[in-house]
Amino acid sequence: MTGAGMMGAFIALMAGGVPVAIAMAGASLLYVMLSGNIPDFVIIHRMYGGVDSFPLLAVPFFIWAGNLMNSAGITNRIYNFALALVGWLKGGLGHVNVVGSMIFAGMSGTAIADAAGLGTIEIKAMKDHGYSTEFAVGVTAASATVGPIIPPSLPFVIYGMMAGVSIGQLFLAGVVPGILMGLVMMATVAYFAHTRNYGRDVPFSATKLAKATLEIATVACVPGSAWLLFTLGVPGGWAVIAAFAVLLLLDKLFDFSAVMALLTPVMLIGGMTLGVFTPTEGAIAASLWALFLGLVWYRTLDWRRLVKLTMDTIETTAAVLFIVAAASIFGWLLTVTRITDAVAEWVLAFTQDPNMFLLLANLLMLFVGCFLEPVAAITLLVPILIPICLKLGIDTVHFGLVMVLNLMIGLLHPPMGTVLFVLSRVAKLSFERTTIAILPWLLPLLGTLFLCTYVPQIVLWLPKRFF
């Protein structure tokens, strides 16, 4: 059996409806059995080696942190904060939807958690205020794609492990594009609000706006306070503890709604940038912080629910790691059989222009994203595309952001767009109407993708400043 035969077996299994992980493992097993030149134990060895990775420890903890935040009532607090900040604008709840998703993205790292958590609150509120169900679903779906772009991000962890790229750099690479996506979507909401004459959903309140601004300023001051104490001679650990103590006091004093949630991305990005912890250790820190908020600070999480969401996390983690394990043996065999070299030679014979390759890669990733969920797509595409990027001199951090953004847009596409199914169920809207509702929002997302693809400085400016 040749490498081409293995690829044919994989495609045939996928076409037959076999899950992608089983299709990759099955095609690999067929190749090993029929080729006769590779020992059988190599499959187990390679699959085990694929998941025996320190960076992959971040996977269960980021999933757990997202589940904890979703189950501890944090989503309601984020919604109320966003409402006070931008709810008074024309089309206010649309803006609230986008801002809420950007904040939640700094905690969950997955589009599905965003759509299922905040989406439930936001769609109901928008329908109650007279917005059409289609508009509510469209803006919720589009804003959910920000989840894996703004750190932390589960797809970035998988990509970084598969491509041998710094996960810390990938996290920083997502900050500016994530903010850009949010601004573009808010501009789109403003356009629809003016063309459809949407009003302001809450009256302007200087007091609420000032309180929301104070929350942002308070969170921004935490790392600055810790650094100031450190420069004055206070040991680093005590400086951080003192800054957190002041934050807890202010939270109780002013009864802030979301300041503790807002601190999560600041803690993660600041900790990784300053070298306090690795991305994997950051995932553990985020989980402990979410656990503290749910059980101790807000007391909105009981032990029974904690056990249930922990079991859900174990189930999701097992599925993700099985995909990674199957992709490890499949990707290794693609390399051994020189399939990746053949693909690279074919592409380079067609074009050696990096811009043309990026265009072709975008089209391929958008197509694959319509059929495969992001983790499976990343594990399949990285062994094929990264060697070409290296030969063409394309930065692999930049390409990682482009790949993840493509696959996030793919979540909004039929036939397999997971966000489509989630929002169709949440909004009680048919799959067909949900798809039509999302179509106008693909334009701003594709525009952002174009900018991030061909203006790499947007992606690489922050990583290059700190790494």
Question: SSE layout and pairings?
Answer:
Blueprint: H1 3-15, H2 20-35, H3 41-51, H4 58-71, H5 74-86, H6 92-105, H7 111-128, H8 133-144, H9 154-163, H10 167-173, H11 175-195, H12 206-231, H13 236-254, H14 259-273, H15 279-297, H16 303-336, H17 339-350, H18 354-369, H19 374-392, H20 396-410, H21 418-427, H22 431-438, H23 442-454, H24 457-466
Kindly summarize this structure in a few lines:
The protein has 467 residues and is mainly alpha-helical.
Count of helix runs? 24
Average pLDDT works out at: 81
Distance between the termini: 45 Å
Please state the structural category: mainly alpha
- Gross morphology is globular
The largest sheet, given as strand count, sense and whether it forms a barrel, is: none
**Strand content of the residues, in percent?**
under 5%
Output the helix-strand order.
HHHHHHHHHHHHHHHHHHHHHHHH
The helix fraction, in percent, is over 70%
Number of E-type strands: 0
Low-confidence stretches: none
CA-atom Rg in angstroms: 23 Å
Describe, in plain words, how this protein is organized in 3D.
By secondary structure, the chain is mainly alpha-helical. Among the domains are: 211 residues, no CATH class; 38 residues, no CATH class. Helix content is 78%, strand content 0%. It has 24 helices and no strands. Helix 6 packs antiparallel against helix 11, helix 7 runs antiparallel to helix 8 and helix 17 packs across helix 19. The radius of gyration is 23 Å and the shape is globular.
